[in-house]
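Archive transcription. Copying these from loose printouts into the bound notebook so they stop getting lost. Printout 1 of 2:
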Amino acid sequence: MYIRDNIIHFIAKKHIVTTHSAVRFRDLGSLAHLLKSSLGTGILAMPHAINNGGLVFGGIGTIIIGFICAHCVHILVRTSHILCRRTKTPQMTYAETAYAAFLCGPKPLRPWANYSKIFVNTALCATYIGGSCVYVVFVSKSLQQIVNSNSGKFIGIEMFIYSLIPALILLGQVRDLKYMVPFSALANIFMITGFAITLYYIFSNSNLHSLNNNKLFASVDQLPRFFATVIFAIEGIGVVMPVANNMKYPHHFLGCPSVLNITMTIVVSLYAMMGVFGYLAYGDEVEPSITLSLPNSEIPAQVVKALIAAAVLFTYGLQLFVPLEIMWNSIKHLFNHKFLALGETVMRICIVMLTVVFALLVPDLDPFISLVGAIFFSILGISIPAVVETISCWESHLGTFNWRLWKNSVLVIFSLLALAFGSWISVQDIINIHK
């Protein structure tokens, strides 16, 4: 009896350890996905963001904005879990969470439930398409620097945007994520290699060692650009719900420590480090992407630009995958089943060409990144989560002295200010470029 009990105890203990190992492995996988989605081209724009904020204000501001973005992700996922229990639904997307919040909220808001779902899907599409436009400009700008440096001739960026059209159309036609796996793998390798060489250039820069930069605070008119750029860089809320829903134990996504907290701590630390040291290395002359500040005449610098340009190009199809799926699902009922394939192909080509047109209209990274961050990421990443939590908690869960209402009101005001002033400054910059 004693031996049998020991064997049963050993088997049970081994099963628990194996189960915990599997859970930890899944959690690590979710953490990796979240890191991959957050650590993109935005980190390359951080030195320029610090240039618009100043060393002290920019460094502290990056941490504060990172905390705000993490908090908004937290309240969105937590609200989604609560609404899943209320509606007895296994899991919800971002748009479905907004729909359920309005549907289960105060009676005067319930008729707006369907409009809220449409609004969130529209914001998602606009955000990803805006990000794709930035990708096109970034790749074209990198190629322009490489070619012009080696040829000794000046070729306008428009020619490079046109040259990308065939590749962009092919990437936009990918309709199954499994076909993007090789491209994503190559993009990760290229990006990591490019980051490593970029960090070498930053930390070997003589200006960094002498700490010549003394711009601790920027002027007030530069702050909207700082906020818009940092929001664009850090915000990755569009992929949060799929990652959280894919976890075996979704509650591991929240809490302390958790997948979200660990990921955001790593992301914000890396962004702040890249921003501060990149600005210290290149000062006020830093380009909207740190790679564009690397010397054009040196082979390693050209390799970095080519590698990261290729990585961003390979990620273009993944960036457009979500909006293309949303848009096609919303219009495919208009087509006869015989023309579904043709209709989807034409729709995808049209959206790709739309990103090309916007890139041609604003072929400059600085105002483009600020504009996308100010309009799209501030709404999607800050305003909507705050509104959704407030509505879902309206009946009896706003807390002592309605603290959730006050807190979310501050978040919405901050988001609207970033939207208004960031958009205004960005549009002014675009107008000045075209003069």
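Printout 2 of 2:
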Amino acid sequence: MATLNSPLRIDIISDVMCPWCVIGYRQLAAALQANDVDHEIHWHPFELNPNMPAEGQDMREHLVEKYGTTPEESDANRANMTQLGKELGFAFSFADGFRMHNTFKTHQLLHWADTKGLKHDLKQALFTAHFTHGRDLSDDTVLVDIAVETGLDRNEATVVLADQRFATEVRQEQQFWSQQGIRGVPTIVFDRQHLVTGAQGIENYKSILSQLQQMRSA
């Protein structure tokens, strides 16, 4: 049972292809800072596009195919996310030809980074690499370069991706969250029992955190 004096455990299920995961996390981070909440964050894998081919897919085409999004809706969504990102200190660069990719190997690299204490840093670096710089996260060479930029070992990162040593663990973790009913991201679980979905906004997160602190002190 969590107590008021123990850090607030925050589990975040997300995919680095998910722009709302960036926004939701940044909103939550701002609320945590504003409320001065002692916390620990644990990132967990989710694949938005598990069946996507290796070459990926143009983001516009993908949204039309998956959600029936019109070009006008797509442009409006991009403008909205870009503005939200700007307000949160994150730069979205949705250029024409922006592509989505499968992220199974990315999640394996993150799993390995967790053993080095650098999972959070790598997660943020991957968000920036994809959404700000348009780097191809399906390319092992790119992933290794990002790992090195985050402070991880190049040779070990290369081998981790080549032999996929953490593939089973990642699949098991994905299955666990699927069995908990997680169907979309971001999904945030506070203290292992309070689940919140979507990017809620800074003020809503501040309210949620205040309620949790009150419950912990009761």
